[in-house]
Amino acid sequence: MKNVEKLVQRKSEGIDRVEKVLSCEGLGPHNVSVKGLIEIIEELDAEVIFGDENRDYSSDSFAIRVQGKSGVLYRVSVHYRPRYARLMAERFIELQDESEMSVLLQAFRNMLKFEVHWYDSRDGSWEGFCIHGRSEDIPKCWPGDMLISLLCTLGDDLRSSFEPKQNTLRRELCEAYPVSWCANQTLPNTTLADVSRFIDIIHEMQEAQSKEEFIDIREKALLEIFDEEVE
User: Fold this and answer.
1) Do 115 and 45 fall into the same domain?
2) Taking the CB of residue 87, how many other CB atoms lie within 10 A of it?
3) Which tens digits make up the pLDDT trace of 29-83?
4) Whole-number Å distance between alpha carbons of 183 and 208
5) What is the pTM of this model?
6) In terms of domains, do 37 and 124 share one?
């Protein structure tokens, strides 16, 4: 019981520290994103860890660990540059024009950066991979919202991997999901046949020769794996 209480306390302290570190006076939309980030961390029962991610002395860094439906343990390394946020806040006003906001966010896109890894039980290492957009893409939302979206994707990784744009996640799960099963990280009722069938579907998606073929495979897979019909 004491160990459980300590874990709950540690998680609570980590979440409180995230809000304190990331919040910036005068930057309302960013602070709203921070609130949303905290909510999704709690919803996914993720753990925040400070102390191991600081490679850049100009940033405040921490890690968020979240377990996907596959049982795979993911680590999102978050790097926040408060100086960027404070500088933006000096001239920030509630802009209505989306193009103007995109210009501002593009200039400050490195205010909040993150990297993704999954835990490889075979050798105890963290395997890095990239599933978010290219850094040169023009931002359409605040970086905190992108981080929220990323955590949701990882938390529901099996379902998320059926999304057309998730090529990298599909590729990683072909290796990570079987490793997770061998490490007893999957749900107790998950069989090797379940894992094998899922990977077969992923391969079918990867080998699709057209968008239409991919969509057809995806719709059948959603019904078979998640009992979900596409309207």
Assistant:
1) yes
2) 15
3) 999 999 999 999 999 999 999 976 556 556 799 999 999 999 999 999 999 999 9
4) 31
5) 0.90
6) yes
Same structural domain, 181 and 147: no
**What's the 3-state SS for the chain?**
CHHHHHHHHHHHHHHHHHHHHHCCCCCHHHHHHHHHHHHHHHHCCCEEEECCCCCCCCCEEEEEEEECCCCCEEEEEEEECHHHHHHHHHHCCCCCCHHHHHHHHHHCHHHEEEEEEEEECCCCEEEEECCCCCCCCCCCCCHHHHHHHHHHHHHCHHHHCCCCCCHHHHHHHHHHHHHHHHCCCCCCCCCHHHHHHHHHHHHHHHCCCCHHHHHHHHHHHHHHHHCCCCC
Last residue of a domain, one of 155, 182, 212: 155
Domain count, the chain: 2
Same domain, 121 and 182: no
Pair (117, 193) in one structural domain: no
- Structural domain for 113, as ranges: 2-155
> Can you tell me which residue has the tokens 């069989």?
191
